[in-house]
Amino acid sequence: MTSFVAKRILSAIPIVVGVSIVVFIMIKIIPGDPIASLLGPTGTAQQRADLTARLGLDRALPMQYLAWIGHVCRGDLGTSIAKQTAVEPLVTSAFENTIVLTVFAAALAFTGGIALGAVSALRRGRLSATISNIISLVSISVPQYSISLLLIIYVAARTHWFPTSGMFNAIDGGTWGDLARHIVLPGIAAALVPMGIIARMFRATVSDVMSMDFIDALRSRGLSERRILGHAFHNTLPTLLTIAGLQLGYLLGGVIFIETVFSWPGIGLLVYQSISQRDLPVIQAGVIVSALAFVLINIVVDTLQAAVDPRVRA
After folding, report:
1. Residue 9 near residue 299 (C-beta atoms within 8 A)
2. Per residue in 151-163, pLDDT tens?
3. How many domains, in total, are found in the chain?
4. Would residue 172 be called left, alpha or beta, if left means φ above 0 and alpha means ψ between -120 and 50 degrees?
5. In a domain, 277, yes or no
6. DSSP E strands, 165-282
7. Would the pLDDT of 169 be above 70?
8. CATH number for 292
């Protein structure tokens, strides 16, 4: 098992290097002049030349990349152009808030998706299965921002049960209860698409497993339906873990619409604001942190798959 994990980590290194190169090049080809943004309209030609040399922007692109990746490996993500502060605490704080929203949305998506998929697969031809299929299809089809606006209009504005923006109240906020009230609506909006995907995939997996020969063999031995379902669920775990890992990565990188609509102070909202402010160091740091988190999630998922399925280790 240790050798398997070591191989997965080593195989992830080229992916991380490739992602960092793509992020670096992406920032370089974005229109705009970072030197002009830093100096402002009053900067002289001499100041421009001095700042270009100090930042190393007069060197060749490979040398710029090596210098940048060296700083990233030491935890130095640069300085925000808009806020004139270190990027690292901005991204770290925002990423922690995104993790909170992602974990809540993932719990909803996994629980709802598994329940809907199981009902659809095990109760075929019944009304409950039809309702489950409809819910999963609707959750996949409806855009997240549309659901977000509907929740704000018909749930928050009309009932006043839940806040429509932020993570805590400005006055007397910061408690767990306050966080729970703020996270409900963005969590539901973020969870719907992954929940529908998990439900559809889990339904297909359970149907395939229940049609296998070993299920008939277990029934012929007189095992109860409950124990048979336990054996069947165990055989669906590798596929379920793969789907769950992909959807968790999707949530980490795909909640930007949710965070923008609900003003949730996560990394999606930070990157969105930085794009409008042309704050390139923050954009670069936000994208690279999200990409690294996705790679790490895949390593964890592969490790869990190897733990439950010996064939993966082989």
Report:
1. yes
2. 888 888 888 788 8
3. 1
4. left
5. yes
6. none
7. yes
8. 1.10.3720.10
